[in-house]
Amino acid sequence: MSDARPFIIGDWGSSAMRLYLCRSTAVGPEILETVSGPGIKFCADIEDAFFAAAQPWFDAHGPLPVTLGGMIGSPLGWRDCPYAACPTSVDSLQPLVTRFEARGVPITIAPGLRCTSVFGLPDVMRGEEMQIFGWLADAEVAADEARLLCLPGTHAKWAITRGGGVESFFTSMQGEMFEVLVAHSLLGRAMELGPDRAAITDRQEFVRGVTLMTEQPELALEHAVFASRSRIVTGGLAPASASSFLSGVLIGADVRDAIRAHANKGLLDKPVVLIGAERLCELYAQALAALDVDSICVSAHDASIRGLSALAEAVPADA
């Protein structure tokens, strides 16, 4: 891809569209302009929504190549793109991407990944793989070096990479479990919740929840979560602090169980790589520290741009 010619990359998920007009440089992609739009669940017509957002760039530069990742490649998106099987790297995705033209513009959509997890179960991801590939593009990782990554979120991903590729991963639904428990279960009825009910308003209670899970490996999550109600009833927990405690329990359990699953695989001699929003990464880092596991935090935004750019470089517009 020529350094002088711009290109478009985008992370288009269920809730939001983020498009970037970029150009290649010797040190990575340079973002020239950014535009946001609705997620696919809010779009009556995917193609119209895309061109409503990006048309000014085509008017200025012509039919630039476009590379998209995320749920835009799901059955609910622009095209249903089959998953690529792990292990795989960004370079090996070239024959697996979905390519088509829309209004004379060449579109490439990433396939997402599928694997058999360390538990022997099938798992899938769309969008997060671009963040992983973005980190791998800049990380100094030996060809046979294995690393453990965590991408916190509504559906957190724990991934094993080896060299420059993704070997396997599994999904934790702790973020969605928090929402379900707060909004639809007995636990949420006694809580006092602010506008952002996932916000940690009481750090001490968050730490108490993490500690409860990390110091008692035999304590099952389904038993521990009820303490966010029983401690209110017995006077040991303020209703305004209960959601912070519940977050600590869920994140503590997620981290505890993931570390236990990978403890004998030689993956913990280097820091766990956390890729996500700063607030969430900090919470996961605190839970990892409770288990004496080091971590490093990487911006999901920066990693996604780097990964999508790497895919754009790997799949020439005229391929």
What does this protein structure show overall?
- This protein has 319 residues and is of the alpha/beta class.
- It is 36% helix and 26% strand.
- It has 10 helices and 15 strands.
- The protein has helices spanning 46-61, 128-138, 174-184, 186-189, 203-214, 221-224, 227-233, 242-262, 278-290, 300-314; strands at residues 7-12, 16-25, 28-38, 66-69, 84-85, 88-89, 98-102, 105-109, 113-116, 122-125, 146-151, 156-162, 165-172, 272-276, 295-299.
- Strands 3-2-1-4-8-7 form a 6-stranded mixed beta sheet, with helices on both faces.
- α3 runs antiparallel to α8, α5 packs parallel to α8 (242-262) and α7 packs antiparallel against α8.
- The radius of gyration is 21 Å and the shape is globular.
- The N and C termini lie close together (12 Å).
- The relative contact order is 0.14.
- The mean pLDDT is 94.
